[in-house]
Design brief:
The protein has nine helices and ten strands. The chain starts with a strand and ends with a helix. By secondary structure, it is an alpha/beta fold. A hairpin with a 2-residue loop joins strand 1 and strand 2. The protein binds adenosine-5'-diphosphate and magnesium ion. The site of adenosine-5'-diphosphate has 11 residues, from strand 2 and helix 1.
Length: 240
């Protein structure tokens, strides 16, 4: 569904992504791990063109996406993203957060957007919070609203950038189980996380990024049991 070939990204002189080759198939869950600063967020941001790559190719469904030619809004509709810090609109209710994309970007009629928004909010366990403002929600609830908001655009792929890292430990589970349910329903997902239980249980493949390079890829259980690369072993030693 998404394929990346020889992707390179620089910030000034800093070479952040180095010849990254990577792909995710339909309904697959890829878990991306790596130390802080290894380029995980930059890779996700390149995939939905929040950052522009310098060289290399990005294909979605076999079509190469060229940032100069393509309608980037369309790509961003197909590729949803959930951030560590939720990024909800604070002055909008939960329902307004969830429906603003469909209404403003996709020109969905408000009544339809709200009907679908209700379904999505029920699905993430927030059927009683439509009219609440984000400041009244816990971190776990905010993140579930952020997931519902992203799903409201009916994306083909969802990117998650450390969705539980900002949460109190007791709130991590509710967000992970929402993501697990989404995976079960067949959503294609790329997930940056340090939750190795989630990786093992839900991940179809694990990608280890070190200093902007993909060092190791494989099934999570294989990599946990028997990492091929010394650097992977060291990294797993610091987080497991
Ligand atoms: P990770 O998500 O794995 O922690 P990032 O992709 O955020 O890593 O960052 C990779 C490297 O790129 C880091 O050295 C970071 O400081 C740098 N970087 C990230 N974003 C920018 C930016 N907008 N401008 C300059 N440097 C950046
Ligand atoms: Mg990051």
């Amino acid at each position: 569904m998404i394929r990346v070939e020889k992707l390179n990204k620089f910030f000034g002189d800093l070479h952040v992504l180095k010849d990254v080759d990577f792909s995710v198939n339909e309904s697959e869950v890829v878990v991306l791990i790596g130390a802080s600063g290894s380029g995980k967020s930059t890779l996700l941001r390149c995939l939905n063109f929040l950052e522009m790559k310098d060289t290399g190719s990005i294909f979605i469904d076999q079509n190469e996406i060229d940032e100069r030619k393509e309608n980037l809004n369309l790509v961003r509709q197909r590729v949803g993203m959930v951030f560590q810090h939720f990024n909800l609109f604070p002055h909008m209710t939960v329902m307004e957060n969830v429906t603003s994309g469909p209404i403003n970007v996709k020109k969905t009629p408000k009544s339809k957007a709200e009907r679908e928004g209700k379904e999505l909010l029920k699905k993430v366990g927030l059927g009683d919070k439509y009219d609440v403002f984000p400041s009244r929600l816990s971190g776990g609830q905010k993140q579930r609203v952020a997931i519902a908001r992203s799903l409201a655009m009916k994306p083909d792929v969802m990117l998650f950038d450390e969705p539980t890292s900002a949460l109190d430990p007791e709130l991590v589970g509710e967000v992970l189980s929402t993501m697990k349910q989404l995976a079960k329903e067949g959503m294609t997902m790329i997930v940056v996380t340090h939750e190795m239980g989630f990786a093992r249980e839900v991940g179809d493949s694990l990608v280890y990024l070190h200093d902007g390079r993909i060092v190791e890829t494989g099934q999570p259980k294989d990599i946990f049991k028997n990492p091929r690369e010394e650097r992977t072993k060291e990294f797993l030693g610091t987080i497991l």
